[in-house]
Amino acid sequence: MSSSWSSVLQAALKTSMTFLPIFMIIAATVAETAALSTLGQNQRHTRVNKQEKDRPLLRHFGRGINERVIESKGGFNRFGLQDHFTSAETIPCLDMRSSDSTDGTSRDDILHVSSPRAIREAYTADTNVQEGITNAGIHGRSSGSGCCIIRLHGKDAISVRGLMDFADSFFEGVDDENRNSNIKDLGVFRIGKNIHAGFDHDVNEEGKMQVLYTKLIPGITRQDEPLLLPLEVEELVGKNSLSRAHKGMNTLFDIGSQITSAVLGMDSVTTSKLLDDCTRVTENSQQHKMVSGNADKIADDVSNSYQRIIRYLEPPSYQVDESDAAFWPHVDSTFLTLIPMPDIAGLEVWCPSLRNSESKNLSRRGEWVRPLKPSAQEATTSTDPSEVAVDCIHVVALAGEFLQLLSDGQVPTCIHRVIAPKPPPLGPFDLSPQKYKARVSAPLFLRPRRGEDAILDVKSDLRGSSNRGLYFEKGLLQECDSMHVWDYMHCISPDN
Fold first, then answer.
1. Is residue 387 exposed (0-12), middle (13-18) or buried (19+ Cβ within 10 Å)?
2. What are 312-338's pLDDT values in tens digits?
3. CA dist 31 to 24, 212, 214, 303, Å?
4. How far is CA 412 from the centre of its chain?
């Protein structure tokens, strides 16, 4: 995207509706972007039916997750101590590949790939705790964290690595005084109600992290790359780097869709209906006129799923407490959050204790576990050495609130936090301390569609509940029947 189009968009963000006709003659994608920005400032995005019925069980569901997050803050990690929970013990590893990763001749065809049943079991919380059984299951001594490590290889590994390289290139550009003027002064701008994009160089002015908030407008066809906002990103990293990033995003969208489908037992039609993989689902979605009356429909064209690029800044040297998180315990309002594992660790997930889940001592109810990259042999169930891929990449896939909701409590939403790397210690004779290496993360948030067609039909869309989920709540799914899935957020968190 040329700098002139970027200037047009920025101008649009500052104009009133009287300037809207100017943008009607611009190329379709840019016109749509400009209109989104302007309309978002002039009309509240309120798709929710005014007669939406009350959903008390859904509100209770949200409170229950919040209580678990609060409880996790009383827990602790015990890395290196005897009898502590470990990544290999508590977090399952799955081998997967995207739908279009094999060309019929690659090594991908002979590699082991986890079955849908294995994927479902890896995410399902262990119910032994309900039955008074304490034998370790697939999650070791944990009832299940809602976290798995996904191992990708071949073309998939190359594409996701391109996304990680894009993240590094972005922050290299941010640090380059000769190139960073546009992105440095950009800030975070509003496209529609609760639809934002931009760059925050110091989130909440806490000195802990910098975040690039992107939004994606899907291409007209699946072969077209989406338009990524803010437009200044392409100017900073170059078209080739951004194109490689899109390929990595597409791989993660595909893997996330497979996981969601396997866990919930959804067919491809239902998955496409409910899960926003940054593709258009109706032929007319890009044909809305750029007028204020169509603001809601236009905003629905912006993908509800998105990519973020995060850099965790160097903490002050006096912050030596390992519990002083750069990102405090939280859950994501997603089906899945997929994070390519960077070289520098820092993500930690809450693993509830299988034996002590009801202990009055909150610190005994579980442990914080840091997902670590497994060896190639550990990440596959195959015993054939020829099936162990040397060139692979690992992705952490965290279950979000919607996966717990639609699984009827069988899958726990993953509570997680981030601990920034500590500054290198100074010795008594160190005259030139080592340079701090910041942790860069590129999470992709896979969320429900916002469109009018994304309505849940419990009986036909989902596998059906066994009423044995660790977090099962009687009547909850029935209360959500015929609901726009994204309306969960309007019920629990209207400002999300």
1. middle
2. 988 776 554 555 678 889 999 999 999
3. 6, 23, 18, 17
4. 16
